[in-house]
Each structure stands twice: as structure tokens, then as C-alpha cells.
Write a structure and sequence with these properties.
- It is built from 15 helices and 11 strands.
- The chain is of the alpha/beta class.
- The chain has 2 domains: 10-255 and 430-476, Amidase signature (AS) enzymes (Alpha-Beta Complex), CATH 3.90.1300.10; 307-369, no CATH class.
- Strand 10 and strand 11 form a beta hairpin.
- The chain is globular, with a radius of gyration of 21 Å.
- The structure holds glutamine.
- Glutamine is lined by residues 130-133, 156, 175-180, 208, 314, 425.
């Protein structure tokens, strides 16, 4: 018995569906069967879109039969994080406060997926409002790591990472505000990409911290992640932060190699992480040098201020963004004697403890008398970090480091200690503050055979060099083991 569902890549599925070799309906049936067999154990999905997915697959097959171009993702099942609005489908953000709410519109990224022929297979579990690093704060219960069911998949996009790792979908979308794509990708042994701020539309993404949030791909290999990135990236007039300029497609450049590329191994993302993780980063650096890159060690001490600055800026923005959940406009309402009491009773019942903690921290950081000392100071630190990265990128093309300080930790290990949970993102947060691109690539295993992710960081719009480095790392990486069998067994695997 295996915890692996369908192993085919997105590229091969799309090629075969486009050529008529297999039917999109067969592809979706195999994935829905894998979900039915395995998701009871994993809890990666909060909502499976069985009916709509089958209908969409029939439509793709009809286009193929009619000789039309069904798109680059023809028939490819994609799982989407449950903070992406899909018209008419429940969108919960893992929170009770959105209970019963279905958006009247779809996120731009989901429209793009459908236009590219992809099949939306389900909404994935997440930490409540994307606040967390373990997918344990969801009102729908924790998602489990397919490599070890007693461990977390990471978060907050843990459902998407677990679904891809277990073969329930070859591709998934997540959101990354401080590491929520890269950290779960590392924990689950898959590729996770945080694109440059502004390259992927956030229209229809439920906002957590708007100056940091980005949507990005999960995949089991770099080429599939590139395929998905190329479909979702590009200008969108519906998102005022979307970059209005042509973007280069990354897919065609994956085989360009790294000869002559300058790579900096970032000391702050290696020193202090667990020895097994640090060892993989050093091996990754050696692999790049062997492929012709010019590798040097460098230090950007300012990135150490990333975590404290983030935990003022992100909660401040969240406290503002989440003020809209008032019992009037969305989901849950707890009736009370007057409107103010109804607002308060709804929020008290609808939000979980971590979300309440963030709202209180953020409201305090923004309050009159403290604003300059906390939020204002954090914004100055953010500028210091941006400048420090800019200086580093004058000497190198990309930076290399760990994605996470540890491998996946046991479920429950950090739920009682918010600070230790926050530290799980210490290596990923600086990128978000700078608005740059970064991705996690699986690179062998650490203690206990658990996956390790190596992080490739690039300056704004540096996706091309970032993906080229990722491809070389993937080719050099020790194999990531297939997800291990569950302790007490569930349904059978589907190949
Ligand atoms: N774990 C971080 C937090 O809780 C990052 C979350 C995210 O990227 N959405 O804020």
C-alpha cells in the first residue's frame, strides 16, 4: 500500500490529453479516485469539486475531438487553496467566520487556469486566513504530511502541498505571505514558488497582508511549476498592484543551465539551521559549482530583522483586512441585542485564537501613540532589508539558502508556542518583505528520511535565472522518497 496517488506529471498529462492519447475524463477520474482513497487520512481537501471537475473534463475532451486547442494545461487537475474565490463554491479560508459563504466571482488565476484547459479538482485546507506554518489552525482540522502522517505538512498552504506530494493532483496553487508556499513545499518534498510581487494577479485572493501576499504554484517537478507559473503570471487590470509589463516565459529557458551564473550562499539562511538541512544546502551549492556557476558565500546581516518586522507589518495589515468580517457582509452571523454586540459576538465565535492574536497585535501596532514605535519602525526596517538585498544582488544573480530551519515537525509540537511556530518561517520571510521571487526545490532528505527543501532567491523579476538554477538543482538532487505508507492503512493507491 502506498500513499501515492497518480504519479504522471502535468506536462505529460497535458501532452497526452491534447494529442487524444488519453481522455481528460480518465485523468480526472483517476485523481478523484485517489482523493477518495487517500484524503480521509491526509485531510488535504476541504471541498472536492467532483461534479464540476467531471463536467469540465468532458468539455476539454469535446474540444480535443473538435480539433480545437484546449490549452497548455488541457485536462490537468489543479488543487487550489481555499482562500481563492471560486464563483458559487464554498470559500472558507479554513475559518468558521466564512461558513456558508460562496463568492459571486472567481479569482483571476482560476479564470486563467480554466482558460488554459485545467480542471479545478478541489479547494485545499489551510491555516485559518493563511496565518500559520502547519495547517493546524484550520477549523477543518489538521492536514497530515504524506511522508509521515504524525507530522505537519507545513503551512499555511499545507493542503495544497500534501495534495501534490501524495499524487492527488499534479499541480496546486497556494499563497505566500511569509513563506506559506515554500515552507510546506519543503516539508512535503515538492517544488513551491513565490513569484515576484505583482507578477501574479491577486484579484479574488482573500487578503491577509496585502503588501506581502502572492499566489504561486506547487508541483512535483520544476518543469511543471514553470508551466503553471507561465499560465498564471501576467498583467490583470482588476489588481491595482499587478505589474503592467510583458513577462518572459520561464518554461523555454529551463535547460539553459547555470554556466557563469553568480550564486551567493546566504550565511543567514544556513548558519543556525539544523545540521541535516544545512548539509543539503552546501551540497546544492557544490552541485551548482559543478554545473559551472560561480559560487561564493556571502552575508546580508539585515535579513535577521525580517522576522520581527514581518510580525508587526503582517498583523497590522491583517487587522485592517479582517475588519470586513462583521456578521453583515459574509458568512457567519451570531445574533445579539444590537449591531455592535452582533459584530462582536460574530467575531468572537467566528475567528480562532491565532487570528485573534494577529488582530490584537496588529491593532496595537497601529494604534495612536504606538504607531511610529511599532508599525512605522517596522516599515523603516523593511526599507533597510530591501536596500541590503539590492546591494547583495549587485554582486550575485541568485542567492541560495535553506527554505526551513528544520524538516517537518510533529503535529501538536508547536501549537502551544506561537514564537516557535513563527520561527519556522525565518528563512522565507525576508523575500516577502523585499517583494522578490524565491522558490523551494526538494533536495534529498534529512533526519528520519524527511524531505529537505533548498531555497533559491532571486531579485524582483528574476524568475528566469531562479528557474534555471532550480532545474540544475533538481537534476543533481538525491531522490526524494515516495510518500510512506500510512500507519494503519487506508484505501489503495492509484497509479
Ligand atoms: N507563517 C507565516 C504567518 O503565519 C506566513 C504565512 C503565510 O505566508 N501566509 O504569518
Amino acid at each position: 500500500m502506498s500513499l501515492s496517488g497518480v504519479s504522471a506529471t502535468a506536462l505529460s498529462l497535458a501532452t497526452d490529453v491534447r494529442s487524444g492519447t488519453i481522455k481528460a475524463t480518465e485523468v480526472i477520474d483517476a485523481h478523484l479516485a485517489a482523493i477518495a482513497a487517500l484524503d480521509g487520512e491526509l485531510n488535504a481537501f476541504v471541498h472536492v469539486l467532483d461534479g464540476a471537475a467531471r463536467e469540465a473534463a468532458v468539455a476539454v475532451d469535446r474540444r480535443v475531438e473538435a480539433g480545437e486547442d484546449p490549452g497548455p494545461l488541457a485536462g490537468v487537475p489543479v488543487a487550489v487553496k481555499d482562500n481563492l474565490c471560486l464563483r458559487g463554491a464554498p470559500t472558507t479560508c479554513g475559518s468558521r467566520i466564512l461558513e456558508g459563504w460562496s463568492p459571486p466571482y472567481s479569482a483571476t488565476v482560476l479564470e486563467r487556469l480554466v482558460d488554459a484547459g485545467a480542471i479545478l479538482v478541489g479547494k485545499t485546507n489551510m491555516d485559518e486566513f493563511a496565518m500559520g506554518s502547519s495547517t493546524e489552525t484550520s477549523v477543518y482540522g489538521p492536514t497530515r504530511n504524506p511522508h509521515d502522517l504524525s507530522r505537519v505538512p507545513g503551512g499555511s498552504s499545507g493542503g495544497s502541498a500534501a495534495a501534490v506530494a501524495a499524487g492527488l493532483a499534479p499541480l496546486a496553487l497556494g499563497s505566500d505571505t511569509g513563506g506559506s508556499i515554500r515552507q510546506p513545499a519543503a516539508f512535503c518534498g515538492v517544488v513551491g514558488v513565490k513569484p515576484t510581487y505583482g507578477t501574479v494577479s491577486r484579484f479574488g485572493l482573500v487578503a491577509f497582508a496585502s503588501s506581502l501576499d502572492q499566489i504561486g504554484p506547487f508541483a512535483r517537478n520544476v518543469a511543471d511549476a514553470a508551466l503553471l507559473f507561465d499560465v498564471i503570471a501576467g498583467h490583470d487590470p482588476l489588481d491595482s498592484t499587478s505589474l503592467d509589463r510583458p513577462l518572459v516565459q520561464v518554461g523555454p529557458c529551463l535547460a539553459d543551465g547555470v554556466a557563469g551564473m553568480r550564486v551567493g550562499v546566504l550565511a543567514e539562511l544556513v548558519d543556525g539551521v539544523d545540521a541535516d538541512v544545512a548539509a543539503r544546502v552546501h551540497e546544492a551549492a557544490e552541485a551548482l559549482a559543478a554545473a559551472g556557476a560561480i559560487v561564493e558565500e556571502l552575508s546580508v546581516p539585515e535579513v535577521r530583522y525580517g522576522l520581527p518586522a514581518y510580525y508587526l507589518i503582517a498583523p497590522a495589515e491583517a487587522s485592517s483586512n479582517l475588519s470586513r468580517y462583521d456578521g453583515v457582509r459574509y458568512g457567519l452571523r451570531v445574533e445579539a441585542s444590537d449591531v455592535a454586540a452582533m459584530n462582536s459576538a460574530t467575531r468572537a465565535a467566528g475567528f480562532g485564537p491565532e487570528v485573534k492574536r494577529r488582530i490584537m497585535l496588529g491593532t496595537y501596532a497601529l494604534s495612536a501613540g504606538y504607531y511610529e514605535a511599532y508599525y512605522g519602525q517596522a516599515m523603516k526596517v523593511r526599507t533597510v532589508i530591501v536596500d541590503a538585498f539590492a546591494a547583495a544582488y549587485r554582486g550575485v544573480d541568485v542567492l541560495l539558502g535553506a527554505t526551513t530551519p528544520t524538516t517537518a515537525f510533529p503535529i501538536g509540537a508547536k501549537t502551544g508556542d506561537p514564537l516557535s511556530m513563527y520561527l519556522s518561517d525565518v528563512c522565507t520571510i525576508p523575500t516577502n518583505l523585499a517583494g522578490h521571487a524565491a522558490m523551494s526545490v526538494p533536495f534529498g532528505t534529512g533526519a528520519g528520511g524527511l524531505p529537505v527543501g533548498v531555497q533559491v532567491l532571486a531579485p524582483a523579476l528574476g524568475e528566469l535565472q531562479m528557474f534555471r538554477v532550480a532545474s540544475v538543482l533538481e537534476a543533481a538532487a538525491p531522490p526524494t522518497p515516495a510518500p510512506s505508507p500510512p500507519p494503519q492503512g487506508s484505501g489503495g493507491g492509484v497509479r
